[in-house]
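Re: folding output
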Amino acid sequence: MLSTVTDAADRDQRLHVLSDCVTDPDPRTHRTLMTGALPRPADIVDTAGLRSLLYENGPLPPGAGESVAPFGGK
């Protein structure tokens, strides 16, 4: 995930990392990533915070925000 965030930041994309959807097996590494490395190129939010960001400019258009089928799913 760190390489993906770095690559996206290099491409000047706006990034949000969902803190309650990522983890590292080593709690110390996870804490360092969430508080030190990742906040520079990305906004760290939880899923509730992301929902607020999505709706702060009014309701989403129909179909937006619906869950996406897994790879190969329908």
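--- second protein (sequence, then structure) ---
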Amino acid sequence: MNNQPRNTNDLILYRERIGLTQRQVSRLLGHRSTGPLSKFEQGHRLPNIPTALKLAIIYRVPVDFLYSILYSKLREQVRAFEQKISKPTPSLKPHSRRHHAYS
């Protein structure tokens, strides 16, 4: 099993900046232990959306500040895809319609 962090983040930075312990933040998140928060901070897990929003509220910063590297990667991917899909497609030449007289 690979123990390398996959989700680099700034959770520890913001937690320490605001002066809270893992236990305090875990309680604010409604967790009984510090295990989930530790896994988030070490980059081994990503929080679900409600938990990510709670972390942003606790640390008083937008979620993208907490996961700035992931945010930048995702933004680049989305912008590249936007460029790809927004390229003008060759337009079809309108064909002339002939009016047929029906007897």
